[in-house]
Amino acid sequence: MSRAATMAAFVADLAGHLDRAGRPLNFMEVCGTHTVSACRGGIHSLVPKGVRLLSGPGCPVCVTAQCYIDALIDLGRRDGVILATYGDLVRVTGSGGSLERARSEGAAVEIVSSSLEAVDLAVHNPAREVVFAAIGFETTAPATAVAVEMAATLDLRNFSAMCCHKLVLPAMRALLVDPDVKIDGFLCPGHVSVIIGADAYREVVDHHGRPCVVAGFDPLMIMEGIVALAAQAAGGRAELVNLYPSVVSAGGNPAALELLDRVFEPADSIWRALGTIPASGLELRPEYRRFDAFSRFGLTLPEERDISGCRCGEVITGKAEPAECGLFGKSCTPVEPVGPCMVSSEGACRAWYRYRRAEVVS
Asked: Could you point out which of 75, 139, 247, 279 has its C-alpha 20 to 30 Å from the C-alpha of 214?
């Protein structure tokens, strides 16, 4: 069967499940990569009107709280500090500008493609303090752990990490107890699931009664996942289904999980729009605390502030679609982004602007 015929069959199955459910169905794709792929593949135009796809808090840059961005900018402006960061983060606006602006004004902000590049910066700049902006979910946290262990092995005194790593499951639980968010099932993230394993979502199924489907990123895989969610919703079932077994195992990656447990411990963390969620982040264990930038520089996070007019927080919690923001496509574009959802390559607003703008403004 051709791809077009397979997609048509999926669409017909989805319409049938929606009809049996007898009500609208809301499914959240937790992962930003799923959001981008769904927009690029035209999934939104194929699903029946009664099926709504909600963007979730799966974009690392988007969920990073404003106060953390402000603290990074403050640190990046300090004399003797080199701030190493992934590229998406430099254009995110804080209350006092962005890291990109700080760099244009003389701050030593270096874009790196890996955590070990940050370690290498510290090795080659012994007179400077090198701080790695460590953001991301369970997917990127192991790389930070490797960098910290490498710094310990080399006995680097000028390397530290400003950790803002997040854990997916606490955010999913927080959304499920939010009365303003209606979720009938989760399309679980593929990349994170490689690390934590499909079985990690069983508590969402067993304790919260929501279907969870792990799916790949091809549009056909995404649609297959949506159909699987709709079949369960229509039948009043909540099950865990792994449609990505070639990549995602039940138990995840044991080596990566052991590494995370060796270097990090759970900690309360501030999320954009979701506030402080208990045990939803990672901080360095006491034996590695000397590499913690917060401790080394005596940093405290400033007060959390919203960006005026920006609805990014509502977008990443499924409460609003990008086109419902008054800034979308006007004062907020990929060239001149206002909120992180338009900055990040995994941001819902950027994906909508690139692939759905003509559709949503017509």
From this structure: 279
Contact indicator for 171, 285 with CB cutoff of 8 Å: no
Q: Which amino acid is at 15?
A: A
- Identify each DSSP E strand in 35-157 by its residue range: 51-55, 81-85, 93-94, 97-98, 108-111, 129-136
pLDDT in tens, 2-32: 999 999 999 999 999 999 999 999 999 999 9
If one counts the domains in the chain, the total is 3
Contact 131, 148 (CB under 8 A): no
Q: Is 81 helix (H, G, I), strand (E, B) or coil?
A: strand
Q: Are 38 and 76 part of one and the same domain?
A: no
pLDDT in tens, 274-330: 999 999 999 999 999 999 999 999 988 888 888 889 999 999 999 999 999 999 999
| Residue 284 and residue 219 share a domain | no
Return all residues near 73 (Cβ < 8 A) that are at least 6 apart. Answer: 94, 96, 97, 98, 99, 102
Whether residue 160 sits in one domain with residue 19: no
Residues 90 and 129 in one domain: yes
Same domain, 14 and 37: yes
Mark whether 273 and 140 lie in a shared domain.
Answer: yes
